[in-house]
Specification:
heterodimer; A: alpha/beta; Rossmann fold; five-stranded parallel sheet; 5 helices; 41% helix; globular; B: alpha/beta; six-stranded mixed sheet
C-alpha cells in the first residue's frame, strides 16, 4: 500500500485516482497532516493495530503540512531503523532550492515537483508507481 | 531529456563490461539524452566524484546528476563507495541508485541503511534490462529534482 501525506485535497484526489486508474485494487492511505503520518507509521493511537496500519511500500510526502511539517516527518522516518527502508518521495509544489537541499540532507529518496497541468500530474503519478512499486526493491525490514 | 538545455550527467560504476554496454545502449536507444561516464572500480568512482587525478577537469568529468552503482567492485567495493558518498557534504545530495545482481534482503536493508536512494536488481532478460534503463532515465533525469540544477555546480 501507499501512504499519501498531503493536506491539499484536490492534489490528493488526483494522486489517488491516477494510481487507481492503473491499479484499481491498490490500497492507499491518505492523511492530511504530519502528526497523523507519524501516528500511522509509529502505530500510535487509532493506528496501534498493525492490521490497520500495514507498512507502506511507498510514502508520498508533501512538505507544507499542518501540525508536524514534512521535513520533520521525513527526519523521523529516516532516523528509525524499521522505517528507513521505505522509499519516501517528496511530492510538493515547492521548487525552492533550499527545500530540495534540506530534503536531500534528510535522506529523502527522491524529490518531485507537482506539475501544474493535470495530464502531466497523472503521468507523473503513473511513472512514480511504475518506478517505486515496480522496479525499486523495498527493504523487507 | 535536458533541463534548461543542460545535458544530464550519469556516472555508471560497473566493472562488468557487458552490463555497462547494455546500460549505454539502452539509454541511447530510448533517447534519454545524457552524457554517460563509466568507471569500472570503486577507487575510480571516488576519484571521479572528488575530482582527483585524471578526473580533475570538470569539463570532461562533470559532477553527475545521478550515480548508478554496482556493489561488487574491484579495488574499493560498492559499499565503501556508497558510504563515502553519503557521508561527504558535497556528494551526499547526489541520488545513488544501486544497480546490482544481488536480490539478497540483507543487501537491500544494508543499502538503505547507508542511504542509497534506490535499489534495483539487474534483470537477466535483455529486453527487461533496457526497459528498466528507460524508466530509470526518465524518472531520475526527468522527474526527480536535483539540488544542483537549482544553483549550478554543487
Amino acid at each position: 500500500m501507499i501512504l499519501l501525506v498531503d493536506d491539499n485535497e484536490d492534489h490528493a484526489e488526483i494522486v489517488i485516482r491516477s494510481f487507481r486508474a492503473h491499479d484499481p485494487g491498490l490500497p492507499i492511505h491518505h492523511v492530511t497532516d504530519g502528526e497523523s503520518a507519524l501516528d500511522y507509521l509509529f502505530r500510535r493511537g487509532e493506528y496501534s493495530d498493525p492490521g490497520v496500519s500495514p507498512r507502506p511500500r511507498l510514502i508520498l510526502l508533501d512538505l507544507r503540512l499542518p501540525k508536524v511539517d514534512g521535513l520533520e516527518v521525513l527526519k523521523e522516518i529516516k532516523e528509525t531503523h524499521e522505517l528507513r527502508g521505505i522509499p519516501v518521495v517528496i511530492l510538493t509544489s515547492s521548487q525552492a532550492g533550499i527545500d530540495v537541499q534540506m530534503a536531500c540532507d534528510y535522506h529523502a529518496n527522491s524529490y518531485v515537483v507537482k506539475p501544474l497541468e493535470f495530464d502531466q500530474f497523472t503521468q507523473l503519478v503513473r511513472d512514480l508507481g511504475s518506478y517505486w512499486l515496480g522496479w525499486n526493491v523495498k527493504s523487507a525490514v | 531529456m535536458t533541463v534548461k538545455g543542460k545535458p544530464l550527467e550519469i556516472l555508471l560504476v560497473e566493472d562488468n563490461d557487458d552490463h555497462a554496454e547494455i546500460v549505454k545502449r539502452s539509454l541511447r536507444a530510448h533517447q534519454v539524452a545524457n552524457n554517460l561516464h563509466v568507471v569500472a572500480d570503486g577507487q575510480a568512482a571516488l576519484d571521479y566524484l572528488l575530482g582527483r587525478g585524471e578526473y580533475r577537469d570538470r569539463k570532461t568529468s562533470p559532477s553527475p546528476d545521478v550515480i548508478l552503482l554496482d556493489l561488487a567492485l574491484p579495488k574499493v567495493d560498492g559499499w565503501e563507495v556508497l558510504k563515502e558518498i553519503k557521508q561527504t557534504d558535497k556528494l551526499l545530495r547526489i541520488p545513488v541508485v544501486v544497480l546490482t545482481s544481488s536480490e539478497d534482503e540483507r543487501d537491500v536493508a544494508k543499502a538503505y541503511d547507508c542511504h542509497a536512494n534506490s535499489y534495483l536488481v539487474k534483470p537477466v532478460d535483455f529486453n527487461k534490462f533496457t526497459d528498466l534503463m528507460r524508466d530509470l532515465g526518465f524518472y531520475w533525469l526527468g522527474w526527480n529534482v536535483n539540488p544542483f540544477i537549482q544553483g549550478g555546480e554543487g
